[in-house]
Amino acid sequence: MASHPSNESILNNLLIRLGIAGIFLYETIFSLFIPPYSLNLLLKQILFVGARSMLVIIIAGLFVGMVIALQFYDTLVRFGSVSLLGSAVGLSLTRELGPVLTALMVIGRTGSAMCAEIGIMRIENQIDALECMAIDPYRFLISPRILAGVLCVPILTAIFIVVGIFGGYFVGVILFDVSAGSYFQNMNDTVLSRDLLMGFIKSIVFGLLIVWISCEKGFNLHLNKNGAYGSEGVSRVTTEAVVIASIAILFSDYLLSALIL
Amino acid sequence: MENINSKNVLEVSNLNTWYGNKKILSNINLNVSHKEIMVIMGHSGSGKSTLLRYILGLEKTKTGLIRLLGKEVSKLNKKDLYKLRKRIGVAFQNGALFSSMTVRENIELPLYENTELDEKTIHIMSRLKLELMQLSGTESLMPSELSGGMLKRAGLARAVIMEPELLFFDEPSAGLDPITSAHLDNLILQLRDALNMSIIIVTHDLESAFKIADRITVLDKGEIIMTGDKEVIKKSHDPRIINMLERRAINETVDADDYLNRLTRN
Above 0.90 for ipTM, yes or no? Predict the structure, then answer.
């Protein structure tokens, strides 16, 4: 009969995993300041994390904006307050849906790819090869990805919000005849700089979390206690990275909202 | 235990390592001198690659001493370890080339990262190494477009691009046909003479080992059972070495009842 791990050993393993992930982040941040600094590596990651995610973010932002407008219109019309549609769309996109949905899209598109790529590099000895060539793998592989995540996720979030607002405009103003002036004027009156700041802070934190979790999972694939190493190991850590990063985004979203509000 | 002297490029003494409670390497003592080709031989699972990882500082030792080019590996901080690694080259079994880079980008990477050389000089150096490995014309190919033998040679070109004092080569002949393998053996001998380096090779290929080695170390179950020149190894009376040299399978006499018990045990 298979023995079940005790609560104590689960807690021990969790603490060990957190410690390893913490050391990984420390090494990565430390390596940001170690020369040589390569703009090429950073630009390559910005292209991957940012530019190549743009289309999916635009499409997602458009439909999310449209569906929010549709739902709010249906609710607001019952209270005769359709003029507040712009405020509702603007606030929900800026504070919550923009940062969270952008982060979840980036996890699916970029985080999983990063985790799998670095995991394969680990099992094919490419990370050991870097070490043996006296090239710090944290500086060469992870730092450019972290920087690209922290830079690109806020920009992608901004694009998501702007496109979402125009998606809401299309449904509210063009389909349901809400006045364009009241749509934008109410949004302008209600969405404060504090709301924008909240979305901005969230997106920076989410960018860091996505890349940290995804890269750490792939990088430390060999430390996995469940024994899977080859292709199964890569698939397992990639799934774990997506699940853990998604939960971390939702948890930190609540935490940041509670702190900032 | 072997004598340790300052002219050795590698000195390992009393190295013991564990994985959990299982002992992996037991009381390893090994010296390699300047310009020597040392082959570490043993069957799969004998601990050869693990020993290599400890020597390279990819795993940390808790017992014993590993001195590489005069520096005690376990006592070095990250910066000094990287400084030391600039003086060594490592060619991995599968080449370990970066799949997103061309052959030339792979080979030039250590020069771009570790030196201040200009692009033109780096190109000349990589072209020289590619010619030495008979890989001219493959510069712009991706690793996925190379054969197994070409991957190994490209990995070797990257390992020697910084002209190291000591080269490590993990399983040079694994997965290669006999002709490509013989070609790689010749290359290794040429490299030692052309670049004046010491070479440590980990392999289980007898033919290759006896062709290129100055001395051979035989590992079995994590222990060194013999170190010596080719003739000493050939004349050994140790049954494990005789079995290995004659490519004989290790015979285990199994009692039928014991075997049945083992299979049916929960």
Answer: no
Higher pLDDT, B18 or A121: A121
Chain A interface, mutation test: which of B49, B50, B56, B82, most A Cβ atoms within 10 Å? B82
CA distance B74 to B80: 11
Cβ neighbours, 10 Å, residue A13: 12
For residue range A33-46, what is the model confidence (pLDDT) as tens digits?
Answer: 888 788 889 999 99
Q: Is A245 exposed, middle or buried (0-12, 13-18, 19+ CB in 10 A)?
A: buried
- Whole-number pLDDT of residue B157: 93
The correct answer on CATH 3.30.450.20 for the domain covering B8-236 is: no
The nearest alpha carbon in chain A to B99 belongs to A121
Where along chain B do its domains lie?
8-236
Q: Which of B49, B54, B98, B160 to mutate to test the interface with A (most CBs of A within 10 A)?
A: B98
What is the H or E stretch that residue A239 is in?
helix A231-260
What does the pLDDT read at residue B250? 55
Nearest by CB to residue B96, choosing from A36, A126, A135, is: A126
| DSSP letter assigned to residue A36 | P
- For B161-201, what is each residue's pLDDT tens digit? 999 999 999 988 887 788 888 888 888 898 888 888 999 99
Q: In angstroms, what separates the C-alpha of A125 from chain B's closest C-alpha?
A: 6
Q: Which residue of B has its CA nearest to A34?
A: B79
